[in-house]
Amino acid sequence: MNKHVTDPVCNMKLEPERAFSKGSYDLEVQYFCSDLCQRTYEARLTWERDGTEEARRTYLDLLAQGHHSF
Ligand SMILES: [Zn+2]
């Protein structure tokens, strides 16, 4: 049985070995279905950390693109 993980951006269920990419954030490993989802997640972290208008706009721009960049 494969253990599934969830993309934190689009909530897609993924098998860890088939995920597009993964990254460690605050000791937690997150898996992503696409490059766009990873960038969106990182933009959200930046916004949460910095709280700037520019960071917010970058995040919302990425979010508006959806999660399938392929
Ligand atoms: Zn995704």
Number of helices: 2
The quaternary state of the protein chains shown equals single chain
Strand order of the largest sheet: 1-2
- Shape summary: globular
Describe this structure in words.
It contains two helices and four strands. The chain is α+β, with helices and mostly antiparallel strands and 70 residues long. It has one domain. The strands form two sheets. The chain has a two-stranded antiparallel ribbon. Strands 3-4 form a two-stranded antiparallel ribbon. A hairpin with a 2-residue loop joins strand 3 (21-25) and strand 4. Helix 1 (35-50) runs antiparallel to helix 2 (53-64). The radius of gyration is 12 Å and the shape is globular. The chain starts with a strand and ends in a 6-residue tail after the last helix. 21% of the residues are buried. The mean pLDDT is 91. The structure holds zinc ion. Residues 7, 9-10, 12, 32-34, 37, 67 line the site of zinc ion (ZN).
Write a short abstract of this structure.
This protein has 70 residues and is of the alpha+beta class. It has two helices and four strands. The chain has a two-stranded antiparallel sheet. The protein has a two-stranded antiparallel sheet with strand order 3-4.
Descriptive keywords:
40% helix, binds zinc ion, two-stranded antiparallel ribbon, 2 helices, alpha+beta, 70 residues
What's the arrangement of secondary structure elements?
Layout: E1 5-6, E2 13-14, E3 21-25, E4 28-32, H1 35-50, H2 53-64
Antiparallel strand pairs: 1-2, 3-4
Helix pairs in contact: 1-2
Bound molecules: zinc ion.
Residues 7, 9-10, 12, 32-34, 37, 67 line the site of zinc ion.
